[in-house]
Amino acid sequence: MQLQQRINAFVKLGEFLEQFSNEVIQKKDNIEHINLFFDGFQHQIKLAEEHNGWFTKENIRFALASWTKALTTDNLNKWLEPYTVKVSNPKQVAIIMAGNIPLVGFHDFLSVLISGHHVIIKQSSNDKHLLPYLSKYLEFIEPEFKGTIIFTENKLENFDAVIATGSNNTARYFEYYFKGKPSIIRNNRNSVGVLTGKETTEDLKNLSEDIFRYYGLGCRNVSKLFVPKGYKFDTFFEAMYHWHPIIDKAKYANNYDYNKAVYLMSEFDMLENGFFMIKEDESYASPIATLFYEYYEDANQLKEKLESKKEQIQCIVSSGFTENEIAFGDTQKPNLWDYADSVDSIEFLLAI
């Protein structure tokens, strides 16, 4: 199969996903195999929501909209332009996927197939409904994909390389278990925000998207904030308030109530507004419904600190603070070339 065939297939997949990426799902008759797949994918979305309480319709729709925007001819060509994508001997690449947000493993899936390899997928039980169905659609629009995509719930066997994502504990297991294979092993990372005190209300509202989208479960969600010494949080809390309906979600509310009770019983100092808490803490990974923060006095010292902690950090969200920063509100809108953990998966796949 030629690279252009693979690109064309994923572009058509993006066009298929677009029907489900808006608040009102709208069937488009010009989409290939639409009558065969439209109702079925609606059902898979419903199953995903029922199976995992964190996968609300809104968050599934947001994930699908993100992939709709990414899977265009222009984006795919721009992404692949720096590489010579030519694989004469396709390898079997195993992917062990996380399940924290909808379709979180799709970029790895796309990378393996677009580079010309075959894929063996071991999904998280938390996110097992959407991708197998989309894979079937991909096989219908490009029959040469048939036989190149395998899903398994059993022990991984007969693979040449692996991309595995998990917790810090499982990452250590992966490193030992897959030590004889070419691999990308990812562990826990969190994203941080840096405020200077000069942010506009609009900046802070955009930051709220980085904090609350997917309930803060993604590695690109901001879980830790660095603020200048003496920072007043009044404007910050005002900018967060439009997210207050999030407390109506039972799983979120349960976590909020539990974590608040723990903090109160432990007599920790924290600020809260009825649906969200902030707590001064040196840790980078905060619980659901909580944002950790830390004061800083010198921007250069903070840059050095963040550089020393880069293995724990996925994104830095700020405005004019550092070279590779992400703009407020953009952490959950990565481009195809924004690689997780800054590890170039296409380069890895073309070298195996």
Automatic annotation (TrEMBL):
| GO MF terms held by the record | acyl-CoA dehydrogenase activity
Q: Does the keyword Coiled coil apply?
A: no
Its keywords, alphabetically, are: NADP
Write down the superkingdom of origin.
Bacteria
What SUPFAM superfamilies does the entry give?
Answer: ALDH-like (SSF53720)
- Pfam families, per database record: LuxC
User: Which BP terms in the Gene Ontology apply to this protein?
Assistant: bioluminescence
Protein name in the entry: Acyl-CoA reductase (LuxC)
